[in-house]
Amino acid sequence: MRRGYAVVMSLDERRRATRLIVTDLDGTLIDHHTYSADAARPALAAAAAGGVPVVMCSSKTRAEMHALARRLDLPPAPLIAENGSVVWWPPHWAAPAARPDVSADADGSVTVLGTPAADLLPALATIGQRVARRLLPLSAMSVDEVVARTGLGHDVAALAAAREYSQPFVVEGDEVSLAALQEAARELDARVTQGGRFFHLLGQTDKGAAVRLVRQTCASGHVALGLGDAPNDLPLLRAVDTAVVVPQPDRGWHPDLLAALPEARRAPAAGPAGWNAAVLEWLG
């Protein structure tokens, strides 16, 4: 047993799995304000009982996601961290063998799709100059400031600040549009996306690229459900067979997601309650 997970899915079990759930975390599987997933536990239990892997796909770091997987007693499955910049593979889930960027990890292996966080800092400064704003990265904030901005506990906030392949940031002063930030990033061969609390600067990858990589390792003919609530989830939702848009507590279903995915299902409630209802319906 690795990393304190409750159940290990064998390689044969993974190959037989015909369904896959890929989910965003903040505002989707876990509550935007409390970070609780309690309302989603019935659907999580049903997925585990049915041998349906739950792949967490988030802007969170690997360390944050490992801690959350232990807390939720999730059977081991790939973790897609930092908006698709890195994929962690559990020991019983073979990573794509043909890829040269797979390296050993203490309890599995990792595939890096993104750009090291340190290499992104100069680009962040340049983007700030081009949009005439000061962009404050999460990595430059104290743990106390991260706690104040996110509501996380100190231990988890420290894990959130330890970025490997992305730079979450806030815009100080007047607001600037996501489109302006994205245009400036493209000129530097980088990408900017927007989550629930932060903008995120990353290399030439996204959640969708990582989801497609994970799906390459699954059983032929499997079907995948994807759930998300924010613009940075759009690539994820486009990379699955059935997309579910989870409403945000303060604004409902995000209009950008609805416009881009007119056929997507709409979860009936925000956060884990809506997640639970949508997943149980799909499983049933």
How would you characterize the overall build of this protein?
The chain has helices at 11-16, 41-49, 62-71, 117-131, 143-150, 154-161, 178-186, 207-216, 234-238, 255-260, 271-283, and strands at residues 19-23, 54-57, 79-81, 86-89, 102-105, 108-112, 134-137, 167-172, 191-194, 199-202, 223-228, 242-245, 265-266. It has 284 residues and is of the alpha/beta class. It folds into two domains: 11-114 and 206-283, Rossmann fold (3-Layer(aba) Sandwich); 117-202, 2-Layer Sandwich (Threonyl-tRNA Synthetase, Chain A, domain 2). Strands 5-6-4-3-2-1-11-12-13 form a nine-stranded mixed sheet, with helices on both faces. A four-stranded antiparallel sheet has the order 7-8-10-9. Helix 2 runs parallel beside helix 11 and helix 4 packs across helix 7 (178-186). The protein is globular.
Write the layout of secondary structure elements.
Blueprint: H1 11-16, E1 19-23, H2 41-49, E2 54-57, H3 62-71, E3 79-81, E4 86-89, E5 102-105, E6 108-112, H4 117-131, E7 134-137, H5 143-150, H6 154-161, E8 167-172, H7 178-186, E9 191-194, E10 199-202, H8 207-216, E11 223-228, H9 234-238, E12 242-245, H10 255-260, E13 265-266, H11 271-283
Parallel strand pairs: 1-2, 1-11, 2-3, 11-12, 12-13
Antiparallel strand pairs: 3-4, 4-6, 5-6, 7-8, 8-10, 9-10
